[in-house]
Amino acid sequence: MEQLKQKIRTCGVVLSDKVLKVDAFLNHQIDPLLMQQIGHEFAERFRDQGITKIVTIEASGIAPAVMAGLELGVPVIFARKHQSLTLTDNLLTAAVYSFTKQVESTIAVSTRHLDASDRVLIIDDFLANGKAAKGLISIIQQAGASIAGLGIVIEKSFQNGRQELEADGFRVESLARIQSLENGQVSFVE
Amino acid sequence: MEQLKQKIRTCGVVLSDKVLKVDAFLNHQIDPLLMQQIGHEFAERFRDQGITKIVTIEASGIAPAVMAGLELGVPVIFARKHQSLTLTDNLLTAAVYSFTKQVESTIAVSTRHLDASDRVLIIDDFLANGKAAKGLISIIQQAGASIAGLGIVIEKSFQNGRQELEADGFRVESLARIQSLENGQVSFVE
């Protein structure tokens, strides 16, 4: 997706060979128009898949997921990382290790909002080693719902997340695929 | 805002005299179309205010804030509650006590994205005792930016948040104002 790649080139900051900072438009400050374009692109790629629900994780997945949900006309669920007084239902949970935060956390989705009749599109901001994606997949499978695929904003293609997800039979659609962050430079998969 | 009140009546769950659960459309599962309508309403109420930036808090403020940002054509910043490897700038911080989570946390915004030239609209999902709002106000004032007002999705008018914010001179626009949750019933301020 060219607008996204252009934004990464102009506003992304390479912090190390593995870490790309995109807090100018995705992870802290959000560019709403770019999110709308991203939502449109996800919707285009999965429009024929009978999606009934989008599932993402708080916090940075929410903006692109809601824009895709608006365009597909389906609700969005964001998995919670932190306990809340008002999230008191029976919960579907999975353990997820976060590379960028270097902690393991439990993500949770209420059984009220997901069931075996659902066909789910997973959306997330980053795909690296696939830990978050696998946590979401586990939760959706516990609910008995089917998975149409994963829509990823930025894929670090030099890590093994896509490879493992595809080996498990999942369709992965990433809007920007980063081949390398070496020497402080972003290069994309062609 | 009538669509919002209707949604609260049909999908809100009163957990106690003080706690309203809206995780069917705002706090866990999100209704994207309702968020678009909410964003439109906030934009209408603040369109003449020269807003340059919207500031909210992760996670439930993000969806309404991004929809308002799309309509006003301005970026959205969400204050972070949790440390991240990629949020390494100089940070503006404030301590916030969360009633629903019963913990004190530090919220943070990078100095990169907010400065004295900004005129800010604060958006949040709930206003109760105003602790989160005051944390955001502190951060925005530390940046030297001016505050056009606060856009709140659901106000618990039986708590003192609005009163205190208005006493401090801030404009508060709430789309649904709840007078009482007593006897398991939602009643709105007329």
TrEMBL record, chains A, B:
5-phospho-alpha-D-ribose 1-diphosphate binds at residues 128-132. It catalyses: XMP + diphosphate = xanthine + 5-phospho-alpha-D-ribose 1-diphosphate. It is found in: Cytoplasm. Its main location: cytoplasm. Its EC number is 2.4.2.22. Xanthine binds at residues 20, 27, 156. It comes from the Bacteria. The keyword Transferase applies. InterPro entries: PRTase-like (IPR029057), PRTase_dom (IPR000836), Pur/Pyrimidine_PRTase (IPR050118), Xanthine_PRibTrfase (IPR010079). The keyword Glycosyltransferase applies. GO terms for molecular function: xanthine phosphoribosyltransferase activity. Pathway: Purine metabolism; XMP biosynthesis via salvage pathway; XMP from xanthine: step 1/1. Keywords: Cytoplasm, Glycosyltransferase, Purine salvage, Transferase. NCBIfam families: PRK09219.1 (NF006671), XPRTase (TIGR01744). Homodimer. Belongs to the purine/pyrimidine phosphoribosyltransferase family. Xpt subfamily. Converts the preformed base xanthine, a product of nucleic acid breakdown, to xanthosine 5'-monophosphate (XMP), so it can be reused for RNA or DNA synthesis. This is Xanthine phosphoribosyltransferase. The gene is xpt.
